[in-house]
User: Which sequence fits this backbone?
């Protein structure tokens, strides 16, 4: 289970990684397994809408059961299907890199992290750093 304290630890570590890596200002959202927001942070200077994009990336990971970087790669082979998903969810899914599943020690999905503000790969790396630093496993497989 992702508690408020563990969600805040993920955010703190993700933002520390971002600052150490000189990334652009980020927004970070941590969702529980049901897709409910547990915690959100938006760095000073993060552009408009970043928290909405971050939440949509986390929702995308949960809805599809995979990290959004992998989903984005699969979407290249079936763009109509993946574009329709965004419509089905009224724009609440973003399938670009930066959405990462969070797994507990048993490998169960307990939530997702979404990050937006830099490039997709940089967002994803910050998500992994935050998840791992908080003691969880990051990714589609444990």
Assistant:
């Amino acid at each position: 289970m992702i508690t408020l304290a563990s969600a805040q630890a993920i955010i703190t570590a993700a933002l520390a990684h971002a600052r150490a890596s000189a990334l652009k200002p980020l927004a970070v959202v941590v969702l529980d397994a049901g897709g409910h927001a547990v915690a959100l942070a938006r760095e000073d200077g993060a552009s408009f809408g970043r928290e909405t994009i971050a939440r949509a990336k986390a929702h995308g990971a949960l809805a599809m059961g995979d990290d959004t970087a992998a989903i984005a790669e699969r979407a290249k082979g079936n763009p109509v299907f993946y574009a329709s998903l965004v419509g089905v969810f009224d724009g609440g899914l973003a399938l670009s890199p930066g959405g990462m599943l969070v797994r507990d020690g048993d490998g169960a999905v307990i939530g997702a992290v979404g990050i937006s503000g830099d490039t997709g790969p940089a967002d994803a790396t910050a998500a992994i750093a935050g998840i791992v630093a908080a003691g969880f496993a990051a990714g589609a497989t444990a």
Q: What stands out?
A: Helices lie at 4-20, 50-64, 68-75, 79-88, 120-133. DSSP finds five helices and five strands in the chain. The radius of gyration is 14 Å.
